[in-house]
Every structure is written in structure tokens, then in C-alpha cells.
Amino acid sequence: MEIDFLYKDELNDIFIWDDHNIEHIAKHGVEVFEVEEAMLDGDRVKINAHSGHLGLIGATEEGRRLVVIYIKKIGKKYRVITARDAEEEEKKLYKRRKGR
């Protein structure tokens, strides 16, 4: 991801949210602000995702580790496909990579 530093009011220019993806992540118990925090986490870890999508493991400001699957649109816009809590192995991967 090519995001270095952003002010909170600039987030609407980066993330594409609609009823579909908001409702989808809600089924996993995840809020929009948590996904945005995880995607902007300076220690986020890129992972392989399915169907040609991009993926990452990132932490919220509260320390919740999330797996986020997304696609990059034209410019610096990102559409979240899904987000969920990281599984134990994914949390370990995040911790190992963060420690480097």
C-alpha cells in the first residue's frame, strides 16, 4: 500500500464504502473505522489473497489484529471486500514481521 500519512478527513478520498461492504464486514463483527486503522497500520503485513485480490494483516489502535481483503481501484482508492479477526497463525505472522 502506498499510504504514508493521512489526516482522518482524507480517509473518504481513499476508501470506497457502500452498504454491501459495510454490511459484509459487520457480519464478521468488524467496524469500518477498524478496517481503516488496520489498513493504515505502519506494521501491516501483506498476505496472499484469493481471486486476485490483495490482502493484509493489520492492527487497530486498540490492538485488534484483522485480516483485510481489498482491491485497489484507479488512483489511490481502495475497496474493501471483507475483513475478519486474524487467526492465531496470522497473528503470529504479524508479530514475527513486526519484530523485524
Backbone structural class: alpha+beta
Helix content: 25-40%
Q: Can you tell me the residue ranges where pLDDT is under 50 for at least 5 consecutive residues?
A: 1-9
Kindly report the average pLDDT value: 87
**Count of DSSP E strands?**
5
Structure description:
- With 100 residues, this protein is an alpha+beta fold.
- It has a single domain, classed as Nuclear Transport Factor 2, Chain: A (Roll), CATH 3.10.450.
- 29% of the residues lie in helices and 28% in strands.
- It is built from three helices and five strands.
- It has helices at 19-27, 32-40, 88-98; strands at 15-16, 45-48, 54-59, 65-72, 78-85.
- The protein has a five-stranded mixed sheet.
- Strand 2 and strand 3 (54-59) form a beta hairpin.
- The longest helix has 11 residues, at 88-98.
- The model is unreliable at 1-9 (pLDDT under 50).
Features:
29% helix, disordered N terminus, 5-stranded mixed sheet, 5 strands, alpha+beta, globular, 100 residues, Nuclear Transport Factor 2, Chain: A
